[in-house]
From TrEMBL:
CDD domains: Nitrilotriacetate_monoxgenase (cd01095). The keyword Oxidoreductase applies. It comes from Aliidongia dinghuensis. InterPro entries: Diverse_substr_monoxygenases, Luciferase-like_dom, Luciferase-like_sf, NTA_MOA. PANTHER family: ALKANESULFONATE MONOOXYGENASE-RELATED, C2H2 FINGER DOMAIN TRANSCRIPTION FACTOR (EUROFUNG)-RELATED. This is Monooxygenase.
Amino acid sequence: MTEPKRQMHLGVFVQAAGHHVAGWRLPDAEAGSENLDLIKRIAATAERGKFDLFFLADGLTTGKDAHPSMVARFEPMTLLAALAMSTSRIGLAATVSTTYGEPFHVARAFSSLDHLSQGRAGWNVVTTSYARSAANFSRGAHPEHDERYAIAREFVEIAKGLWDSWEDGAFVMDKSTGAYFDPSKLHLLEHEGKYFSVKGPLNSSRPPQGHPIIIQAGSSDPGQELAAETADVVFTAQADLEEAKAFYDGLKARLPRYGRRSDQLHVMPGVFPVIGRTEQEALDKLKLLQSWADPAASLALVSERLGHDISGYPMDGPVPELPLSDQLRSRSKLLADLARRENLTLGELVAIVASARGHWMVRGTPERIADQLEAWFVGGAADGFNIMPPYFPGGLDDFVDLVVPILQERGLFRTDYTGSTLRDHLGLTRPENRHVRSHG
């Protein structure tokens, strides 16, 4: 019997004003991270395209230099609960911080979302890069990079323990005996750690997926280690095939130390697609977007990503040699490496960050874009991709209507869902409850 052909996974990374800083200005673009009708249509399009998941990033600050998609937006868990009512198959994932949150609250919120969506919840675990976030949470100081990851590791372990508070079948609701639940299937957590003390149990029954899907997006060494230990999916920013392959191989090589197989962690680089029915049409679209980018806003975005104010440097000069930021360590390194490898001027780097923010940009006809995705997928650089349209809804419409059918024809992507949960889409098994495992 032949093995079924490996298929890629697809997510849509939704920044409702578009990923390009000027994407919202295109004539056929709509905008608004608080435009529920638009966001519901985006989710419906991704579900029509049989995407694995719909993903919302989040941040805990804003300001006059914020990206248009990030300056004002819905709290993501509230929004995903609404989308759970308008979708039926696509996974629903959101960023929630482990530095500015409590494990009990977060575990309860994702358990609730998993129940409301009937098993489609995913949590993008982030440690919050920006130090200014501390000022919004009565904190005197923002933890250092490595400490943030130590906090995250303990936080995720607590959440998983809380999701196992109740065994499956605990709520018997037996009218004849009056027993609403079986107390033998209820378990305390009794966690006492360096950063958290959590007794449990969780006041939510076990999620349909057992544990909602865990996503991790940090590419620093502590970030990769956290992913290897705890994550089901990794979102990464790689713009070069060889670098992507090295990241993929290096991350997968960490899995055996945690008793995990390569197929239990999916690597999904971000992809910024600029699609045209001809190469020239795609190029013209990109040039138009770049011409509309606000130079000051674009420069502020690069300064934020590098962790240093670069406004005083000449745009036609080289990218300055700067120490890596403790805030966005992996992203600042990625941009510095890109500038050095491509010998970019600062102005050229600013133009790149204004569009794909250091992610992989693919430009051209649907066939050419499908070819490039296939090359990375077959070449061992990715298990799938997180699609980052430059604008909505048309940027996603073009990908679903023009690129997805080519991937399907090549046998690289599903033609229909074969399961109902996000774990089903990702080909991941439901984790056993630790208490059943310990006494079973």
